[in-house]
Amino acid sequence: MATRYSLGAAINAGLRAAMAHDDKVVVMGEDVGTLGGVFRVTDGLAAEFGADRVVDTPLAESGIVGTAIGLALRGYRPVCEIQFDGFVYPAFDQIVSQLAKMRARSQGRLALPIVIRIPVGGGIGAVEHHSESNEAYFAHTAGLRVVSCANPDDAFHMIQQAIASDDPVVFYEPKRRYWDKGEVEDEPTRSLHEAAVLRDGSDCTLVAHGPTVATALAAADAAREDGFSVGVVDLRTLSPLDVATLRKVAAESHRVVVVHEASTFLGIGAEIAATITESCFYDLEAPVLRVGAYNLPYPPAHLESDFLPDVDRVLEAVETSLNF
Amino acid sequence: MTLTVPPPTALATVLEARQDDPRATPPLQLIDEAGEPTALGVQVGIDVDLAQEMHADMVLARRLDSEALALQRQGELHLWLMSWGQEAAQVGSVRAVRDTDMIFPSYREHAVALCRRIAPADIMRQWRGVSHSGWDPAESKVHINSLVLGTQTLHATGYAAGVRMDGADEVVLTYFGDGAASQGDVNEALNWAAASSLPVLFFCQNNQWAISTPTDTQMRTPLHVRAAGFGVTGYHVDGNDAMAVHAVTRYAAEQVRRGVGPALVEARTYRLAGHSSSDDPQRYRTDDEQQQWLAKDPVVRLERFLRGVGVEEAHFADLAARADAFAATVREQCRALHGEDLASVFDQTYAEPHPVMAEERAAFVARRDRAVA
Ligand SMILES: Cc1ncc(C[n+]2csc(CCOP(=O)(O)OP(=O)(O)O)c2C)c(N)n1
């Protein structure tokens, strides 16, 4: 039976289910206990599972990931919350050199089933360092899995799938969609590393993830009113990419536009464009185009609406693709 | 064969008294440079059997260093990091904890590894360039080496959090250097372990140098003093006195095991060789300094002590023969080490299926097989 949840509440429910299912699951981060996290995603978990399993940590991001690694080596399954996207950088070494590589460095002996939850992206009028889209750094790193949820149903199931994974997973939560509501099914419809074709399109396909899925859907609606059939793919998984689905939509719609909040230079869109071009060159009627943020430091909140991709910029790119 | 029966609290009394005043203290000694028991050594007693065992461990560890360095010169190893001069700090500390206590080493702890019965082959594997690590931590209870300075102290801290949740009476021992002590991770770990009162024993081998950088460039407050600022009990020991290291670490470990929170042992020692087989220490330190520390050589010191208390020549002759046989094993094991195929790295990177990697692996294997055909 489906239940209606906001995206944030769905993650909360997913965490609760995972903790109830496996008593080795431990939630840890800054202010995740009594407060329930600054976005309340861990609300009520400390009361239910106790301070040993919902740990208010010192303010030390490297410490959060580093101690999570130690906990995992001891047999626990830590779920770390990084309070905001821009504060993950102090933990960068622990993520890319320790967490990602431990399995290969130990010749497959050591598993680190750790999830790092990161509220990501802009659009909420935040002060600096609170609006970044840094998924490409982690997707670039072998040994990590990177996923990005965009709706409550996925949020609920993907967080549980990520926790169940024996590999480390960076789990992105689109913070400006935390309050969006939707139906959550009892059972997952997809595995963690499958993209979702939300809409078929014969003229062009938009490929988005996290916060820009809603933008892409709105753009596809607008295009339909103009008589164009524009498909939408929610990537869901950024590493590994669901290359099979990308190839399929490229072959069917012949035109692909990638939409993400991160800057375009060396972003996920660049990888998708290259992947599709390498394997579907003759299916394409136009080069794969990218719509993303400008290649600037994230600007002050007053300027973010100009900085972030919106429906108009997506439609412009669709038009460019169609006219190519 | 015990020199004197130790009054159970003599050392504790001294160590406790030192805690009253968290200022720099001279490193605690039980045996002096000449191999004579100090006044404190006489008072607390020195276990000659243990001294003999640790002396043997140290001799073998040093032999591993000299063999490995020679193998590096012959091109059999890519790199070697010598623990020369630090054998007492390593052997004394690892023997002071239980075999069931987990260890998070840095990268220079070969003497520790040998004491945990890790085969020379498995110690050399990484330095021969055939893999990133050599041994199974589940067997030896020694985690793989950490080359990014200080990172392992956080892993130890997290592991200790797990120990406590499990209700186990284990201590987690982690090694780091004076240079690493400047890293954020080490300071985060000290703070975190103290705030959560976790069973971590931080062991700093202050060998005076971080490659070419002397300790006074790293810090103004000595580490055993800094510890108090974190709420960590700090101990200062002569790292070239194996018996003192053992006694102090044993005491600190048992305190930690009692659940009073983390402790830190700063062992004052010296890296007698270069930083690594690639280093040239003459570019940054004087012969004078080297000579001064040679006079404090931990292996020589313990031998002097053992001879002083009447250990017979036969013991030393047997040990020399054992070391020669060990050296032959080291050479043999090193030359027999061969790497795995790159395909295995594809298999070892993720626990679960990864289609993009699988595709790349298939392309690699096809290419490799074409090349072989
Ligand atoms: C984060 C980091 N920075 C730099 C290095 C390069 N490096 C390797 S060993 C070393 C010196 C370390 O000195 P110390 O911690 O005192 O340990 P020691 O080598 O003396 O045992 C340096 C700078 C490194 N491994 N990790």
Radius of gyration of chain A, taken over Cα atoms and rounded to an integer in Å: 19 Å
How many angstroms does the end-to-end distance of chain B come to? Answer: 66 Å
The pLDDT mean of chain A sits at 97
Structural class of chain A: alpha/beta
Whole-number mean pLDDT of chain B: 95
> What's the order of the H and E elements of chain B?
HHHHEHHHHEHEEEHHEHEHHHHH
- Report the principal-axis shape of chain A: globular
Level of helix content of chain A?
25-40%
**N→C terminal distance of chain A:** 46 Å
Q: Helical amount among residues of chain B, as a percent range?
A: 40-55%
Number of DSSP strand runs of chain B:
7
Q: How does the major sheet of chain A shape up? A: 7 strands, mixed
Strand neighbour order, sheet with most strands of chain A: 3-2-4-5-7-6-12
Task: Report strand % of chain A.
Answer: 15-25%
Number of helices of chain B: 17
With strands numbered from the N-terminus, the spatial order across the biggest sheet of chain B is 1-2-3-7-6
Which chains make the largest contact? Answer: A-B, 49 and 46 residues
Distinct small molecules: thiamine diphosphate
Key structural traits:
heterodimer; A: about 325 residues; alpha/beta; 7-stranded mixed beta sheet; about 35% helix; B: about 375 residues; 5-stranded parallel beta sheet; about 10% strand; binds thiamine diphosphate
Structure description:
Chain A is α/β, with parallel strands linked by helices and 324 residues long. Chain A is 36% helix and 21% strand. Chain A contains 12 helices and 14 strands. Chain A has helices at residues 7-21, 45-49, 61-73, 92-99, 102-105, 135-139, 152-164, 212-225, 243-253, 268-280, 304-307, 311-322, and strands at 3-6, 25-29, 54-56, 77-81, 115-120, 145-148, 169-174, 181-184, 196-199, 204-208, 230-234, 237-239, 256-263, 289-293. In chain A, the strands form 3 sheets. A 7-stranded mixed beta sheet of chain A has the order 3-2-4-5-7-6-12, sandwiched between helices. In chain A, strands 9-11-10-13-14 form a 5-stranded mixed beta sheet, with helices on both faces. In chain A, strands 1-8 form a two-stranded antiparallel sheet. In chain A, helix 3 (61-73) packs parallel to helix 4, helix 8 crosses helix 12 (311-322) and helix 9 crosses helix 10. The termini of chain A are far apart. With 373 residues, chain B is α/β, with parallel strands linked by helices. In chain B, 52% of the residues lie in helices and 8% in strands. Chain B has 17 helices and 7 strands. Chain B has helices at 10-19, 39-44, 48-73, 87-94, 110-115, 120-128, 137-140, 151-166, 184-195, 215-218, 223-230, 242-257, 287-294, 298-308, 313-335, 342-349, 355-372; strands at residues 103-104, 172-177, 200-206, 209-210, 213-214, 233-238, 263-268. Chain B has a 5-stranded parallel beta sheet, sandwiched between helices. Chain B has a two-stranded antiparallel sheet with strand order 4-5. The longest helix of chain B is centred in the N-terminal third of the chain and has 26 residues, at 48-73. Chain B is globular and about 75 Å long. At the A-B interface, helix 3, helix 4 and helix 5 of A face helix 8, helix 9, helix 16 and helix 17 of B. The structure holds thiamine diphosphate (TPP). The site of thiamine diphosphate has 14 residues of chain B, from strand 4.
